Batch of 4 targets.
Target 1
Amino acid sequence: MASISDTYLQLADGNKIPQEGFGTYKVTDPSEMETAIQTAYDTGYRLFDTAQMYNNEEMIGSALRSLNVARDKYFVTTKIAESNQGFQPAIDSLKDSLKRLGMDYVDLILVHWPVHNKFFDTWRAFEELKKEGLTRSIGVSNYTMAHLELLKTQANEMPVLDQIELTPQMQQAPMRRFGQENGIVMQAWAPLARGQMMDNPVLKEIAANHDKTVAQVILRWQLQVGNSFIPKSVHVARIKQNADIFDFELTADEMKKIATLDHYKRVSQEPELVYENDKQYPHHFKN
């Protein structure tokens, strides 16, 4: 039987990425981080996702070193913040991130959000950082189809991954198709919709059918549609539970039922408005 530690997706540059990883957004307590990373690794997680914006790169680097395993046994992603975009700033800021992480390289860097005034310069920096060996792969986050099409006009190498909002209430089927057609893996951040779907009757019924939780059903859906995904939790039981999705399968009928839950409902920012404003805008999400 497959498990979290041996289920990978192929990237267009020849590298591979674990399909399910561990998110660290809002984890800012060092002891909490250490326990979470140790539990996640012991459970089988091999992908650990951070960002400059999270202010926890130093903590995650320390926690990963505490595992006492070889660097090539895990995959690390970080993201360049909007304020660090541009050619030289992106290069300098990744070097700063590597110092905080205590690493010679990351496996993947992402542009955290698209901003129009540094759009092409930042990507040029990413291509350079890959040539220098400071990152193995380069990708983006929160890019729409239009942003990717625009990038294609000047990029020498296209992103291998786009980390976007992907949930049963925001399924982004056109983006997933675009990714498949263009060799870009779609990765879901906040894959559980920040808890907004836990009381959904359709998901509750499917969960009961499999003796699983709603969260496990959502993550199994992510797995079966082919997304990469990075659930986050600091609770030991939930970290283990989020990985325990390989011993059941959603039926074709259940997948059709989940498809009806797509309401284009975001829990966070609208990428085009971030692109236009060159920064994240004041945003209050409603349940």
Note: The beta strands are 8-10, 16-18, 22-23, 47-49, 75-80, 106-111, 135-141, 161-165, 185-189, 228-229.
Target 2
Amino acid sequence: MENESIILDIKEKIATLYLNRENILNSINRELLFNLKEKIEQIRFDKNVRVLVITGKGKAFCSGADLKERITLSELEIKEFIYNIRETFNKIANFPKPVIAAINGVALGGGTELALATDIRIISENSKMGLTETKLGIIPGAGGTQRLTRLIGYGKAKELIFTGRIVDAKEALEIGLVNKVTKQETLLEECYNIAQMICENAPIAIEQAKKAINKGCEVDIETGLAFETEAYQTCIYTQDRIEGLKAFQEKRKPEYKGL
């Protein structure tokens, strides 16, 4: 298990995916990418999983693409790699359950793009992030140009991508790149605290809220409100909605089952 490039651990409705190439700062090679995609698909419909946490083993979250492997690839293999990393990160962005990035060290290039594909980003105070691709003669190719711009705005996204500048945890918080900064030793605990708060709520409602936010932020407000209405109507017919009303009436904690 420890030799696998991706390690999956599931406890108390929270799945944790560890990038496990710590000797080379969890850089992304084809094997890791294949295994990451496989694990994401494995837990997509798992009723025992309500929140996913992604982090890295050792002292890094993810240092980006494995450049030692990259230099050995043909042009066709590079195109295939870029296609696969984009598809895998899209699967994370569209994962029906909330995804939290526990950024425990450097997150550069594809590492930052991986974090951008998640819903909530918590960073340790010693960590750094950056889309550094232009320094290598390329651009972010796994969603970075699009997700960073939507998250922090055109001007700041262009500055960071054009310069390839790396930001520390404090600046990442200031510009809205991450949600919270915490100490390294309490990073996962903080992520699990947030995950547990999410797990207390109705899973279908959470899924529909994520869908409405993701789809609505790309369109005009009227279309976005239509997405919200559609998502709300999905919740109306659930047993969880009735359970929520009963629990409120009976002054007890609701027991949501995702039904």
Note: DSSP finds eleven helices and ten strands in the chain.
Target 3
Amino acid sequence: MTRDEIDREVQKLGPWFHNMDLDGVMTAPRHFLGDYPRQKFARFAHAIPEDLTGQTVLDIGCNAGFYSIEMKRRGAARVVGIDSHEGYLAQARFAAKVSGVDVELRKLDVYEVGSLQEKFDVVLFMGVLYHLRHPLLALDIIHDRVVGDTLIFQSMQRGSTEIAAVEDDYPFAEVNVFDRVGYPVMHFVEKRYAGDPTNWWVPNRACAQAMLRSAGFRIEANPEPEVYICKRSEERR
């Protein structure tokens, strides 16, 4: 395709949340977060193996396919991207076509990933948690049904970045612990945040980590403030 043809299709499929370089055509050049998600990926890309040869990858909430395409470029044998939004999937199909990579794309809700009937070596769950009404349920399903080894997780976080030591149990009369700085807290958004009605739950740092452990993931690295590289374990809290 010529650059003009690509540009016309990008405009037709817009607006885009992923700013992607499609043969010199930027899909969201005026993104409010800058060159997103490329700038973010640059801060944790080193924590993902450069060579994913032979690995299978599932990208949950793939949006326009930025991470799916990057994983395919690292040699993944198979990449499946899912999203519940047909508009994003259309963008991802076009981006993969222009980028010359083969990515399987399916319209699927995060709560329905078990229908894939497959476990993947690497599962990406990036920027989805806070859009869910039932975030811990989603993590439980992901752990039990699709993660074979590694979960790459990212969530917007707000509130304290400290992590307080938390005991295994507290007496019913203990109430002050819940106000302690660094206690795991999930902020509920009843209406909108950043103009987005799908922003429902926003964890603080301690809560994001606690939820991952509770769902059965062992955190091995935190290469970027919002990003965690996790391994699947059978231990749950």
Note: The helical segments are 3-13, 38-44, 66-73, 86-99, 135-145, 205-214.
Target 4
Amino acid sequence: MHLILWRHAEAVEGVPDIERELTRKGHRQAAKMAAWLNQQLPAHVRVITSPAQRAIQTASALTDNFDVIDSIAPGASSAAVLGATAWPGSRRAVVLVGHQPTLGEVAALLVAGRKQPWSIKKGAVWWLTHRVRDSKAQIVLRAVIAPDMLD
């Protein structure tokens, strides 16, 4: 299974939090990352996003075919995020657009085996793969890339 954790791009400050929109810079970040993802992703990918406006706008840079999942809203648990993706059993690649600190905790859990306060930059992706080799499950970190690396 391919799991691509994509933190929403830069958003305006303010409340209510769920309605915060991307800044101009955020729209550019999302467009750059979406262009890179479009070159890398397999043909059949599922895109899921938090219901927060900034996450929806980030996902929209990639596709208009995505599912909004309420359980991965800001403040969601890492268990809720992994459950929404069907990790590690999904046959399809999944792009999940979400929030800090949850995405950093999910990345740490999958890579290091325990929840830690890792930080994922705004607009960045962490691409992880689950595979089985010699009857042992493995997590492979395929890519970590931030929008400013695509300039």
Note: The radius of gyration is 14 Å.
